[in-house]
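Archive maintenance. Older records in this collection stored only the sequence; we are now back-filling the structure field for every entry so that each record is complete. The fields below show one back-filled record exactly as it appears after the update. Entries are processed alphabetically, and MBL fold metallo-hydrolase is next in the queue.

ARCHIVE ENTRY
Title: MBL fold metallo-hydrolase
Organism field: Brevibacterium daeguense
Length field: 473
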Amino acid sequence: MLIERIYDHDLSQAAYLLGCQETGEALVVDGRRDVQAFTGLAAANGLRITAVTETHIHADYLSGTREIAEATGAQIYVSGEGGQGWQYGFDAQRLHHGDTFTVGTITVQALHTPGHTPEHLCFLVTDGSMTDQPGYLLSGDFVFVGDLGRPDLLDEVAAGDDTRFAGAQDLFASLRDVFLTLPDWVQVLPAHGAGSPCGKALGSIPSSTVGYERLFSWWAPYLRDGDEQGFVDELLSGQPDAHSYFSRMKRQNREGPAVMGRRPSLPELDPAQVAQSLVVGEVIVVDTRHNSLVHSGTAAGSLNIPAAKPAAYGAWVYDPERESRPVVLLADTSEQAEELRDHLVRVGIDEFAGYITTFDGLPLVEPETVAPSELAATDYELLLDVRGKSEFAGGHIPGATQLNAGRVMWHLDELPQDGGTIVSYCQSGVRNSVAASALRAAGYRVLELEGSYNGWSDWNSTRGAAAEEPATA
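Back-filled structure field:
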């Protein structure tokens, strides 16, 4: 048996390819929409993808299940659990707790593990060519390395009403009645790693075992003691902000994401023609550079979506359900442009006009900034901290209002409505540049705080040290 982990560092998301090398059949679990990562890997190992499934209705990225099935002819399996409100809206074979299917000599058993979501499944995998005992658990967003899937997302992004409490109780029961009944040797392969907002303390190690989590996880003592309330309280405390685009992902994944099919190569565009299209509002330019370069001059009205994490940042500021203009990417090469597009389609940004390699010939602007030393003398209406809640609680500039960069474009009613100036900051400046570019494109005047919170802290410390020095003649 072959197991390959396909990890997306942009979204901190893991998909898996399981292959039976005896029959040449393969299964993809929790795949994404740029399918070549899976079809290419299967072909390189002499496999054909015959089955595709997912652990649950995802909220943080757009599922590639239907896309992979369209490209390969694979049979789709999805959860049939969770009740009427959590049924998928597309044709697939439904799985319930205890159901099995085979991929060559591999047996895959569905285990219903509600808590993160009501329909959530894990997949218990047995390599029949070696043993009749299970060896692997594809745990989805149920059990992570060092953490659990958060049960509060439905309140945050799916219009739930205090479902977090019932979800936390469901997680407790899923651990007690399903996970902890498995043999200690079973390897746990989760769908996310460190950096994902689907939990609050995810580890960077790619896998664990049932036995290790039973002994050393933070939640294990609560299960040993039968302390459900203590477990619920600990689980729900300190969960990170949920990004607003999660609501769109959840809805589209339940209905079934649009199938893109074979995509033509992105054309390289003439910057002069792009400049004309900008004037009449036909396209939107995406500046993929680091904010330090953006501040030296960028295309007027452009969005800053850094190439380091284009899917994560792109979904914060480009909503394809509200934005009809196709994207023009700034890229060094055609290969980079294609890679950027692959990342962006993972969050449903599908419309592209092409790419440019230079801003020469486009109208340029320098984003406005303000130095920490000038902040007190600056006339502004709102000091906006676009970091997460926990970062804000750990220290912030006096007078600031917190609104996460992944939520700000969905909460414009909380911003000045009369053209008042906004001063914004994050921790170091990257997230702030992303959010500020989107706010400017929406018509707001934004001054980015130079160095963001780190810059202000350094300046404030230096000022404090200077004030404590004795005066000299």
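Update note: Residues 197 and 439 are 23 Å apart (CA to CA). The first strand starts at residue 2 and ends at 8.
Entry marked complete.
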